[in-house]
DNA sequence: TCTAAATGTAATATATATATTGCAAAAAGT
DNA sequence: ACTTTTTGCAATATATATATTACATTTAGA
C-alpha cells in the first residue's frame, strides 16, 4: 500500500520527489515507486531517506499492529 | 558493521539463525549475513524480523546519530 | 574428549531493486 | 489559457539481495 507518511514528510520539507531523490542519491522513479508502495526498498535507502527528512525508521516505515 | 542489536534480540528469544530464518521465510545464510553486516536487507525482511523478535525497526535497525 | 548443533564462508543461480530514457498526464504558477 | 514543474508509467538494462548447496570451523552438551 502507499506510504503516505513518507509523502507527507517529504512535502512538509517542501521537497519534490526529484529533490529528495538527488539528496539520497537515487532516481526520481525510485522515490515515486516507494511512495506509491510498489517497491520494497533496501534498509540503507530507507535510512538515507529518514536522515534527509529528519525522521526515524519507525516514523516513516513502521506500522503499528492493529489488534 | 555488524548488527549486534539483532543478534542480541535473537539470542534473547533463544532462537538460532536457522530457526529465525524459518520463521521469517528466508535462508539461514541471509540471517547470518545481515547479522555480520554484509547484506543490505529489504525493508519487508527487516519488518518480518522485527515482528518475529517482538521489536520495532528503530530497536533493531536504527542507529542514533552521534553528534 | 566426542558428538552434534550452530555458525562462517564460498560458488553459482535467480529474483528483484534500481537506473536510465522517454513520454504523458496532472498540478501549480503566471 | 499558457507554461513550467511535478508526478505517473512503461521498456529495457544492470546491480545486488537472496536461494541453494556444500564444506569448514566454532560452540555447546553429553
TrEMBL record, chains A, B:
<keyword id="KW-0238">DNA-binding</keyword>
<dbReference type="InterPro" id="IPR010982">
    <property type="entry name" value="Lambda_DNA-bd_dom_sf"/>
</dbReference>
<dbReference type="InterPro" id="IPR001387">
    <property type="entry name" value="Cro/C1-type_HTH"/>
</dbReference>
<dbReference type="GO" id="GO:0003677">
    <property type="term" value="F:DNA binding"/>
</dbReference>
<protein>
    <submittedName>
        <fullName>Transcriptional regulator</fullName>
    </submittedName>
</protein>
<dbReference type="Pfam" id="PF01381">
    <property type="entry name" value="HTH_3"/>
</dbReference>
<feature type="domain" description="HTH cro/C1-type">
    <location>
        <begin position="6"/>
        <end position="60"/>
    </location>
</feature>
Amino acid at each position: 500500500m502507499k506510504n503516505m507518511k513518507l509523502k507527507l514528510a517529504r512535502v512538509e520539507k517542501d521537497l519534490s520527489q526529484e529533490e529528495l531523490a538527488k539528496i539520497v542519491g537515487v532516481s526520481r522513479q525510485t522515490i515515486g515507486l516507494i511512495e506509491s508502495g510498489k517497491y520494497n526498498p533496501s534498509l540503507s535507502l530507507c535510512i538515507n531517506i529518514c536522515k534527509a527528512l529528519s525522521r526515524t525508521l519507525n516514523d516513516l516505515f513502521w506500522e503499528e499492529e492493529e489488534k
